[in-house]
Amino acid sequence: xxxxxxxxxxxxxxxxxxxxxxxxxxxxxxxxxxxxxxxxxxxxxxxxxxxxxxxxxxxxxxxxxxxxxxxxxxxxxxxxxxxxxxxxxxxxxxxxxxxxxxxxxxxxxxxxxxxxxxxxxxxxxxxxxxxxxxxxxxxxxxxxxxxxxxxxxxxxxxxxxxxxxxxxxxxxxxxxxxxxxxxxxxxxxxxxxxxxxxxxxxxxxxxxxxxxxxxxxxxxxxxxxxxxxxxxxxxxxxxxxxxxxxxxxxxxxxxxxxxxxxxxxxxxxxxxxxxxxxxxxxxxxxxxxxxxxxxxxxxxxxxxxxxxxxxxxxxxxxxxxxxxxxxxxxxxxxxxxxxxxxxxxxxxxxxxxxxxxx
Length: 358
Ligand code: MRU
Prior knowledge:
alpha/beta
């Protein structure tokens, strides 16, 4: 994706270092954050310097590769296993994190070079899958359509293109008029800060709405389709996504608005029978009690926005049951969120057979 006329990925690696767009500074500053070892990369995942299902997956793969490099240099043969545990404890809900550590760990048992190649491969696949999801999803978007999205499942949340926003980008580039209602997505504001910034970069008309405005806008006939991403999809089609998604799904059902979840095959977890078994990450309550923003003088500051002395809770994700989901937009086509369709998609992904029919 282009930022200031230069082509970027959200995260990338060379032989020595991993580089990422610092998502904590957006939309106020565009800076590249660099890490040298897997511990720093774990910290960047926890602090959400890099965030979003696919980007976390790529980061975890790169972290695993850095651990193999360190093990080779220091001759600490047990380091990759220790590192894998540390990486996997950073963000428990994101399935892509575990998918990537497993693949890179298995490859790294041969050599650091194999780990490195596998990590690069995961990042490349993620970018290519985003594009395919965009192609399939764009077919759902008619000229003039109005889309609501929650959180950020754009290219910042992946290596490139993204999932929920990729169909919008491809439809927009093909000349279709699209308008996006962006849920601000409290507490961290990924919609207001990241999705809005991405859409500006792409020149897509949009506006930011408060998290509680969705049902009202739907009732007024202003939303044609809702598209969101996912952090993990259970075998029965239940979906874990950013907190607030379930409420939107209930509202969308009330007003007969189709809800699509855009997701690569790597986000499916067939070892997880249903959404109730997905571990929901609890994050710091400071994210609820405080907000960060920029003053008119360009200073980034943090202010308390809640009654001093009151406590908060901060579950980062919720589960939307499969029955609320119209379809899953994948890199191999659009499927219904049923165990049978998910299973057959994954078999086709594993055997490398052709796209499934929509
Ligand atoms: O906590 P985050 O920002 O890493 O959350 C992940 C998300 O962005 C979403 O839940 C998203 O909608 C799907 S994955 C990009």
